[in-house]
Amino acid sequence: MRLLHTSDWHLGLELGGHDRLQEQKLFLDWIVGVCRTENVDALLVSGDVYDVANPSVAAQALFAEFLVGLRTALPNISVVVVAGNHDSGSRLELPRAFAEALGRLHLVGSVASGENATERHVLALPGKGGVPAAWCLAVPFLRPSDIDCRLLDGESIDQAFSRSVGDFYRELSQEAKRQNPSIPVVAMGHLTLAGSDKAGSERILIGGVESVAVSALADGADYVALGHIHRCQTVGRHSVRYCGSPLAMDFDERRHGHRVLLVDLESVGEEPVVLPVEVPEFVPLLRFPDKPGAWSDLERAVTDFDWSKWSDAPRELQPMVELQFCPTGAEADLRERTEALCKGRPFRLVGSPRRVGGIDGRTIATESAPDLRALDAPEALFVRHWKRKYGAEPSVDSLACFREIVDGLAIQGGRA
């Protein structure tokens, strides 16, 4: 059977106050076209459907319209969507009754246990003949509290979580093979695997667990369809893949290749054939100049750029632009200069011009809030205070709660 693996749509994402829903709609329309032309049997969305846990009505409507449009255009396609760390699991599952009415549409936002785990997380995907052609282990973003994550002697928190994740996936895989061992197993997940290369804009995992061993998901699976890391990559094994974000989430991601992955599964134990498909750039993210210089270099870069192709484009599809320069102290009229440079040109300015300095272009002044996640001090202070008060290290759950609070503050201060 043929799968289309995608993740990290972040519907509802804004950049510098600019709405990106029209750009995201073009991407979703493109996905429908790829599923049709490539004869896809199942679409897998590995988390972070939305950018925030409480997305706008417009973002939710866009997702709902996409699902209905896809199933109407391709009645035989299966769709499996799992929640990521940006999603609210309960909100993602809210339209489950409508999904069941449409058929072959699975929305998995939360983790079930016992007999319910098999029903929710072990899904049979029909192939072209209508009979099951693959198992899908549909697992959303996991928190330590979602699974049995007790520390064994000598284990760190990361080691305990990685072991527990492996046990959870292993149980699901064994149940799938017990029911039908003759078809391949696809494991979905939204997390950080050890050895993966972050793009830079991913939010840290709530609970603070930074990575899970590749074997935790890959053992017993013929393909692993991952989300969370925004850079398309293979991790450890040919069959273990992050598809990456389909659109650049910020200017640092603008140079990455943005793809979805076509995956052909033949039989159990046979290496899948994976074909990356480049996602068109619907709205460019441009930084001027590419290498920061004086204000005159910035003006020259913007003035010399050919803007003609967007002269008739609607506002919401014009390029988003970030300006940067090395200050000399002579830019007292920065606002006037910026307005004059932007006037009459078909682009949307994101933030104020960035002042950068130093021989390495290190940012010395920005408009954004500090990244609390990059600071070790809050957690170190928390652990020190806990030990002073209770005479022992904080528990796994207590430390996870603290990290979740810090993570939430980072999101309030600026997108993470």
What would you note in describing this structure?
This protein has 416 residues and is α/β, with parallel strands linked by helices. Helix content is 32%, strand content 19%. It has 11 helices and 19 strands. The chain has helices spanning 21-37, 57-73, 89-93, 96-102, 115-121, 157-179, 214-218, 295-304, 334-342, 377-390, 396-413, and strands at 2-6, 14-15, 18-19, 42-46, 78-82, 105-108, 122-126, 132-138, 185-190, 223-227, 233-234, 240-242, 259-264, 273-278, 285-288, 320-325, 348-349, 354-356, 363-365. The strands form 4 sheets. A 6-stranded mixed sheet has the order 6-5-4-1-13-14. It has a 6-stranded mixed sheet with strand order 7-8-9-10-12-11. Strand 7 (122-126) and strand 8 form a beta hairpin. Helix 1 (21-37) packs parallel to helix 2. Mean pLDDT is 86; it is low at 204-208, 358-376 and 410-416.
